[in-house]
Write a structure and sequence with these properties.
single chain, mainly alpha, hpI Integrase, Chain A, 2 domains, three-stranded antiparallel beta sheet, 3 strands, about 55% helix
Length: about 375
């Protein structure tokens, strides 16, 4: 159970093994970027050739993942123009040129927004499928706005009609997070595996210290799942209880952790440092059962497996563990700027939107304390 006394042990051998992997280069983030670049180039071939000018123009101000998102969204937009607009109907996507952008009107953009509700997704069955939430439609309109604005600034078109169409109204959703008792039970489940199925318990014997370390690290630092899987053994420094992570955009920072996170990591490292791994994955902190660097998908499934045992009504993901950390940090400090800094939010408004609303609870509590008449 949480709060149990941890045994002390001589970690001199552990420190020696950690030093042995410090010389290894960190290829994970480079590999991810390389694979994403290849994916982007492959997808770009599905768009009109002139569109590459746009992607070159925004390459210095956007991440590779943002540009991949643009490719998908613009592919849908050009498919819509080719299939649904009379003035461009039947025109092959690779035949579009900048002059065709002049034919795009406000009506066309509004019709595109309607199209997003049920456009053809399955190319084999040609079935109409509901595809986009409010967030999905908003993202696609934003992509079209950015795309047309690039050519407007270049002088290739005289206006940007997409700017005259309002973004869909997004309905606020409550933040799903774990309560304090749920956090304790989640970590207990990872350590004990008491409520897992018989089949799951077989694997749990080999992964329990790793699973507990991953969950404790996510809950204790608020790092993103992509940051977690990218951590190397040499990124962990017990001298300061800090871990180096690579943020979105490629910036590196140090996240500091508590004694409980330290104990979970040390417990895991006792076995991890003796595990064989592929040459390319030897530096990785967290390994899969195949002794390769654990994947984002594997961590997502890991979190889902244990969270389901704690509260089956809450759909808990690694991002929800991040929200849990942010909520606790804001409750403890009341410092929204500190929360934004630790979570790595580039825009403080993102943090305010998600966490400052919790001040309503304090305001309601204050209102109940004011007495106008003696009862």
């Amino acid at each position: 159970m949480r709060g149990a006394v941890f045994m002390r042990y001589d970690n001199s051998n552990e420190n020696q093994k950690i030093r042995q992997v410090k010389h290894m280069s960190d290829n994970y983030h480079e590999d991810v970027h390389r694979q994403s670049t290849i994916k982007l180039r492959r997808r770009l071939r599905e768009l009109p050739p002139f569109v590459q000018d746009f992607f070159r123009g925004v390459s210095d101000t956007t991440s590779i993942q943002t540009r991949i998102g643009y490719v998908y969204d613009l592919k849908i937009f050009f498919t819509f123009l080719s299939e649904e607009r009379v003035e461009m109907e039947g025109k092959a996507i690779d035949a579009f040129d900048p002059q065709d952008l002049q034919k795009i009107t406000v009506d066309a953009i509004e019709e595109f927004m309607e199209y997003l509700n049920y456009y053809i997704r399955n190319e084999k069955t040609k079935s109409l499928e509901f595809q986009n939430t409010e967030q999905g439609k908003s993202r696609k309109l934003s992509a079209v706005r950015t795309f047309l604005n690039y050519f407007y600034k270049k002088g290739d078109i005289v206006s940007n009609p997409a700017m005259l169409v309002d973004l869909p109204k997004l309905h606020e959703k409550s933040i799903i997070r774990l309560e304090v008792d749920e956090i304790a039970r989640l970590l207990d489940e990872a350590e004990s595996g008491a409520h897992l199925s018989d089949r799951q318990k077989l694997y749990h014997q080999h992964t329990k210290t790793r699973d507990a370390a991953i969950l404790t690290l996510l809950l204790g630092t608020g790092m993103r799942v992509s940051e977690c899987v990218g951590v190397n053994i040499s990124d962990v420094d017990f001298a300061v209880n800090g871990v180096k992570v690579t943020r979105k955009g490629g910036n590196e920072t140090i996240l500091y952790f508590s004694g409980e996170v330290e104990r979970a990591l040390r417990d895991y490292l006792e076995t991890r440092l003796d595990e064989p791994a592929r040459e390319s994955d030897r530096a990785a902190l967290f390994l899969s059962l195949q002794n390769r660097r654990i994947s984002v998908r594997a961590v997502e499934l890991l979190v889902k497996k244990y969270a389901r045992l704690v509260n089956p009504l809450k759909k808990i993901s690694p991002h929800k563990l991040r929200s849990t950390f942010g909520t606790q940090l804001y409750h403890e400090t009341g410092d929204i700027y500190l929360v934004a800094d630790v979570l790595g939010h580039a825009d403080i408004n993102t943090t305010i939107q998600h966490y400052a609303a919790m001040d309503d609870e304090k305001r309601r509590s204050a209102a109940r304390r004011v007495k106008l008449r003696e009862e």
